[in-house]
Amino acid sequence: MLSENCLNLLKYKKFLLKEFDTMTNKEALVFAKENITNEEVIQKLEAMIAALERKAENRKPTSKQIENEAFKEMIVNFLKANEGQKFTVTEIQMAIPELNPQNVPNQRASAIIRGLVEKEVLTKVIEKRKSYFAIA
After folding, report:
1. I need a labelling partner for 71 at 20 to 30 A (CA). Which of 28, 48, 58, 99 fits?
2. What DSSP string runs through the chain?
3. What tens digit of pLDDT does each residue of 23-65 get?
4. pLDDT (tens digit, 9 = 90+) per residue, 77-133?
């Protein structure tokens, strides 16, 4: 049986998720814990927060994530070996046999490279509506 405060908090969480799309389950539980005075509910929320933390600690990377890390290393090594040059995603794929478009879709390779750009390992230059990548 949920109290009116709990229902309001759940509605508020849904509002925040729609509005900002950034609140995690843990953040919502912490927010609820801070704004509720019922001791029994606070204990239940603390148990739920602890369970989420344990779940996060035990998370192992998927096989795709492990494979993507290997691809990132290959891309960085290739671009370091060709420092000063810039390449498109397709050119990088053709130069690295493991990333050949027949094995790895262009969309996946683009996502891997975009992640490296966000981490500022690579730089992205757009020339004539075409994206080129080089080592940062």
Report:
1. 58
2. ---HHHHHHHHHHHHHHHHTS---HHHHHHHHHHT---HHHHHHHHHHHHHHHHHHHT----HHHHHHHHHHHHHHHHHHHTTT--B-HHHHHHHSGGG-TTTS-HHHHHHHHHHHHHTTSEEEEEETTEEEEEE-
3. 788 888 888 888 888 888 889 888 988 888 888 777 888 889 9
4. 999 999 999 999 999 999 999 998 888 999 999 999 999 999 988 999 999 999 999
Q: What is the CATH number of domain 63-135?
A: 1.10.10.10
